[in-house]
Amino acid sequence: MAKSATGEERSVEPKPRPLVRLGRQLILHVHIISFFCYVAGVVAILILPMLAKNTYISENALMPGSGNAAFSNSDTLLARSSAEELERLVSQNVNVQRAVSKWLIEEMTATGADCYVHPFSLPASALSSTRFPTSSGHFKWNTSNASVTGGDLEEQAPSAMSVVGIIRAPQAEGNEAVVLVTPYDPDDFWHESALTLGMGLALFSRLSQALWLARDIVWLVPDSKYGVYPAVANWLEEYHHPPINHISSHQDMKLELLRKTLSEDGESSQQLIDSQTLGDFKRAGTIATGLVYELKSGLRQGGVDTITVWAEGPNGQMPNLDFINVVNSIAVYRESLQLRLETIPGIKSWTWLKTVGMVFEEINKLTRVITPSWSFALPAATYAENMATLFSSMFFQIIGLPTGAHGAFRDYQIDAITLQFIIPTQGQDYVLAKVGRHLEGVIRSVNNLLEKWHQSFFLYFLSALNKYISVGVYMIPFGLLVLSLPLQAAALCYPVKEAGSATTDVSTQSSKINSTKQRAKKQRLERKSGADDSGSWLEALVLVGAVQLWAFFAALALFLISGTKTTAEFKLRCWLGVVALSLLVAFTVQKFLTGSMHYKRSTQAHTQSWTVVKAVTLGITAIDLAVMSTINFPVSLIGALTLVPMCLGVFPIQHSWRYAHSDVKSVVGIAASAVGTVWTLAMSPIGLPLLIWSFYGHLLDINSENVWNFAESLLQWRSALLPHILVIHLPCAVLCLYILLSRLPSQRQ
Amino acid sequence: MANNSFLTSGLRSRQVGASRAFVWGWFLCIVPFLISGCHSVADKGREEAFSEDLLIRPLSDGKVLNHFYFKNYLHTLGSAAHNHVFPKAISQLVRKFHISELELSFTQGRWNYERWGALDPVGSSNAKPSGVELWAEFDVPSDQVDPTWRNLTHALSGLFCASINFLESPAVVAAPSLVFGSRINKGASKEGHTANVRKSGVVRYGALPREAVCTENLTPWLKLLPCRDKAGIATLLDRPSVYKGYYHSLRVHVGRSQPGGAVILEQTLTLVLQPAQLRERGSKELPNWSLTSLFARKLEGRCPLAKSSHVLLELERPLVLSVERLAASKSEPAELSDEKSQQGRRNDKGRQVDVADNPAFHMSPYPDRVFVESQGSGDISQASSLMLDYDLQNHSSARPLNLAMLWKERVYWSSLRGPFRVSRFLIGSGNEKGSLAIELKRNFDLPVQDEVVAANDVEVTIFQVVAWYVRLYLHTLTARVDGNQVPLQNIITQMLVTPAEDRLSPAVLEVKLKLPRNVSIMSLTMDFDKGFLHIDEHPPDANRGFDLPSAYLNFPTSQTRRRYVDLPSSLEQEYPLLQKLNEAGSVHVYTDNLLVPLATPDFSMPYNVITFTCTVLALYFGSLLNTLRRRIGEEERLAKRASGGKLKESISRFMEGKSATQKKLIKVSGVILIAGIAVAFNYALEYYQVL
User: Fold this and answer.
1) Phi, psi dihedrals of residue B222, rounded to the nearest 5°
2) What is the pLDDT of residues B336-386, one digit of tens each?
3) Residues 334..363 of B with a Cβ closer than 8 Å to A: which?
4) Do the chains contact at A170 and B443, CB–CB below 8 Å?
5) How far, in Å, CA of A443 to CA of A326, rounded?
6) Separation of alpha carbons B530 and B533, rounded Å
7) Is the pLDDT of residue A707 over 80?
8) Looking at chain B, which residue has its C-alpha nearest residue A409?
9) Cβ within 8 Å, pair B412-A273
10) Interface mutation vs chain A, best among B285, B485, B595, B647, most A CBs within 10 Å
11) Where are the stretches annotated Disordered (chain B) (predicted)?
């Protein structure tokens, strides 16, 4: 900047307007600026954990931990004895589901709660959630029973049955409710399930005696035979959108059947009374909050009892930050329980992460030498841990699958999280009491809330449970990353002059023209006549449009093909075939169209048509990424990280070749075009799968079936990742390949 | 003596204006005379009469229902300002606003129609929606009704310390035609469903679902009683025990015996309390209770001004049946399993179980009198409900009544439920639209004895007020019977609809349905859009959602009547509560309130708008001033004369003649120099700070 200013210093002419000058300077130094922007963006991502702020409870009404927990030792005893009783029952009975349901109904009724059963059938897809790579056991591909469709469901007798109990808050109007969910799997019922249900009962009975309830408490015990998520989603669906003929006599018959199976032996008349309404789907008003919790036996980690929190909903939607804060503050400050967020194992031990952390630490040491108060870096170990949490959180949001049953609530704008308590085998009672008090405290706090969750953030990342990165902070790296795209596009379509002679050019130009207005006019005229852009612009637009349309078609084809009833492998092949064919068609049409245009207009040399194509590609990619950032931020971030270098660095191979052999070459230029070429190849529709396979092939069971199923599940969960890959990444990669392989006019012309 | 001193203080308040000392002396002389005088007034029953009753009923889930019933009778509403017993506040209200009927209720909690019953007179007519509900019928020309209603709401608001004045806004007030009001209730049973729409527009109805109820409402209510809570049954109202309850409904009902006739003021308080020991789960305790355990008080006699004062304990029909069965099983355990012999025994009406001490429970003290309900039909397969009477005349502070029920065994029974289970709910999620659904599910455990219900079609009247911001689409009203959609005209006999007007009036829906007798499930659904409110129309807790008041349903049936065989007509005056129970009625059911989440703006938005506006204004004025003040010609002249400062000039002179690389080098070294100076300066600063 300083250079050009002095360059202009000599001329006595008035300076051009500052905005124009700024734009000119930006375009002149676009390569350096975009490089620095990208690097700054990456660095900004890396320092996100240091920018994280401490969480605080934003909503005053929550008052976490203000009331004393009434959950006492007798409740702990009840939890444990119920668990033992359940285990005994289960070992005695063949039909676990019936035994457990019957026990639940009896116990719920004994507490004076309204109770009913919610029978439901196998959901249309047997896809259970969801904690995808972290614990592969949880992730059931929908291979088995996938052929069941909606039509068959009507005829099928309900095969699963959830039990629901409702405590009517004694002094409230009953138009709001808090839902507690304790899942159990009748096919896989053992100690942990019994403990979870026992704790559920103890808590439920404790709450049934509470006079402070302002909201009804709904205890949902979903039969998670097909996974927790479908069971909860099914119940919520019926709660909010009851099927139009849900009250048909057919349904009644089914309920009658259920009632009979439940009350096969003699009971007290009290239960008979309630059995009459056992089939009613009872409601409790607007659901304010959902809380899913389960107890797992395990070992204490580092001598502290831990709670694992899952919060990511479908498409990476998060519950209100206050909810997590409440859970955290009660756990840490009252019950001295350790909370942790689920992380993908392995990230923490990445050496480069530790190295980066150490580098930051060293830099911090340096700055502290200069100014002692400048301390920003975290210790390397903490940094690695926070970064692992952040990456995992981003990863879950990118995949877009909910990490648990709480995701089902998110579809109805209900904030929910899943808590998993680790119960050690020794000192069980002590921990159970803590867990009970914690849950009671959370429910009490939620009960205090007057309005729905709205006070705190919904858009945030957590780098630790008490550290959050709000939207205002994490948009900065994204902005830095994406900024270079429009800059570069502008540089391409306003080719000010070649970088070497820029300075003199500008000065001579400015000396010629008197007023800025006139000059702009002149420039425009020049561009129109000289470069003959309109033709190549049209061509580029046709090309980009064709590729984009093809990408939309590919997405549509995926959707259409997923509806058919064939094997996954066949579907994948089918889709690939369709996509390849349609790409050919798209290019043929494009060639035809541009050919006809060539015919019409004078055959002037379309000198640098690839630059125009690149400019349009850059522009459309920038717009796509910006739009995607509002839909799913981490997806757009990862998109920016992968697409920006590709878009910036791509040059036709011929061009790079000539550049490498020309006189004005520089090492930086050669390196840039080499990186661009490699990157483009790596991110291409063929390169990327190969890359993933070569890196993660040994970790994930990648075969054509799984890939297709994964894509289908993304489609089903309405994850933003799939549209990103198909509608943004794919056309961009194809266009970049096109640019890479495009032929330049021979040099003589 | 305690009563006397109280009475003096009570009466003293009525003698306003007289000098205190004189009044004291005067009263001390004539207290005994005054008391007898008051009695004579009460005994005559011509001018004014006051009676107090308490109905207690054990409920099937171990809780106890307490229904306080105070009746005040004023024969003529003369212009004379003085009443002896009848509260002046109410008589003034009636006179000023020409009220023919008025009902005001404050309720906390919800009546559990499934467990606590809906077919009994108490449950059917005293279960009220949570919050405040007010309806009134006026005896004024129809153009006067609205102003009268507005004034009435303000008067009641002051009288009962509640925000009833919010009901003055016409946007929440309805004018029902098919329900509420004396003329309708009486006409309906006789004329059937023929057009009995009353002269329109004399009744107004409003509800405040969110109004909190507390002692501040109870105290003014008690002030209407002649003895307040200082004597008589109202002494039981210990505030902590009352507000710990599971249901609490305070009600004031003002009626006229005929237009312009005697004024009848009924004050009821319906409480559902839980005996203390039941609170802990899993305790094998029986639901024993006594007045002291429920209220922490004993009954130390009657209100001296009351004409009659009774505590009645009701044992409902299914409970009596269960007890009888239990007693039978105790005496002849072998026959329990035998179905036929059991049937036979039940038919044996001669068998009576001791009401106060039987295998199921023990009552103390022994009741003064027992009334047996007379069954309407000849069918005696059902047991009759019993009413145990304790006359408070026999009790005093020396001999307080502490009614207690001690169970010997847990007895299970189910209260008499209404013909239908009613639920109202919202369908859909999101802030855009939804549906409102009312679902009626048949209770098939109705006693066979009720042929009226069993054989004929069931009549239901549904009354619903929907605030204007829930924009109903009336054409989407759909009725489904047993899951199949039926044409509306098949089941709806009468429908009155008042469409909503934005910010002016709510939508009011009155539907009279006739359901076939074998219907098991009926549902009515209607779609709606959610409206947008102005920013100043939102309440402070807008993000909570907006309350929709309860819907009201009415099933005409004779089942809510209780007639007692042993009650001679001569004694009827003595038992106003039993008289009340004998009135023909219908099952009244209120649904729960609903909460409708509406789209709420970000309330920090005005702040943002202000910030933006200020920025724009600042930019505008800044550039305007710049343009006005700037003299371009002068600037150009200056620029020509000295293109840059002396420093710049010297730099450019220094730069002249240097090669490009040298220039670059100089510049870079300059930048490094400046940075170095800055760092050194900073370091020095820190250093001095440390020092």
Assistant:
1) -65, -30
2) 333 333 343 344 444 456 777 888 888 888 888 888 887 654 444 556 788
3) none
4) no
5) 10
6) 10
7) yes
8) B429
9) yes
10) B595
11) 331-362
Give rounded-to-5 percent helix, strand, coil for chain B. Answer: 40, 25, 35
Contacts of B103 (CB under 8 A, 6+ apart): B133, B134, B135, B136, B180, B251, B252, B253, B254
Which one-letter DSSP state was computed for residue B225?
A: S
pLDDT classification of A724: cutoffs 50, 70, 90 = very high
Q: Tell me, yes or no, if B633 comes closer than 8 A to chain A by beta carbon.
A: no
Q: How many CA atoms lie within 13 A of A470 on its CB side?
A: 10
Whether the CB-CB separation of A281 and A414 falls below 8 Å is answered with no
pLDDT of A115-141, one tens digit each? Answer: 888 888 765 554 433 434 333 333 333
pLDDT class of A337 with cuts at 50, 70, 90: confident
Distance (Å) from the alpha carbon of A164 to chain B's nearest alpha carbon:
17
Tell me which residues of chain A, numbers 79 to 138, contact chain B at a CB-CB cutoff of 8 Å: 110-112, 114
Q: Is B76 on the interface with A (CB under 8 A)?
A: no
Domain B421-561 matching CATH 3.20.20.10: the answer reads no
> What average pLDDT does the segment A503-508 reach?
39
Query: What are the φ/ψ torsions at residue A307 (nearest 5 degrees)?
Result: -120, 135
Residue of B nearest to A248 (CA): B483
Which among B433, B465, B437, B21 has a CA at the least distance from the CA of B204?
Answer: B465
Sequence-separated contacts (24+) of A668-676 with Cβ below 8 Å: A672/A31, A673/A649, A675/A645, A675/A649, A676/A645, A676/A646, A676/A648, A676/A649, A676/A650, A676/A651
Cβ <8 Å between B282 and A78: yes
Q: Which residue has the higher pLDDT, A502 or A640?
A: A640
First to last CA, chain A: 36
pTM as predicted: 0.83
Question: Which segments of chain B have a pLDDT < 50?
Answer: 1-23, 25, 27-45, 185-197, 333-351, 377-380, 448-453
Q: Which of residues 2-41 of A touch B (CB under 8 A)?
A: 2-3, 6, 9, 12, 14
For B543, the closest of A110, A371, A454 (CB atoms) is: A454
B59: exposed, middle or buried (C-beta count within 10 Å: 0-12, 13-18, 19+)?
buried
B313 touches chain A (CB under 8 A): no
Do the beta carbons of residue A228 and residue A420 sit within 8 Å? Answer: no
pLDDT of A443 higher than 90: yes
CB hemisphere CA count around A709 (13 angstroms): 21
Is the distance from CB of A436 to CB of A442 less than 8 angstroms? no
Portion 449-478 of A in contact with B at CB < 8 A: 450-452, 454
Which domains, and CATH codes, for chain A?
A: 60-339+405-465 (3.40.630.10), 343-402 (no CATH), 534-749 (no CATH)
CA distance B379 to chain A (A): 24
Question: Within 10 A of A600 (CB to CB), how many other CB atoms are there?
Answer: 8
Beta carbons of A195 and A298 less than 8 angstroms apart: no
Between strands B492-498 and B478-481, the pairing is unpaired
User: Between A703 and A283, where is the model more confident?
Assistant: A283
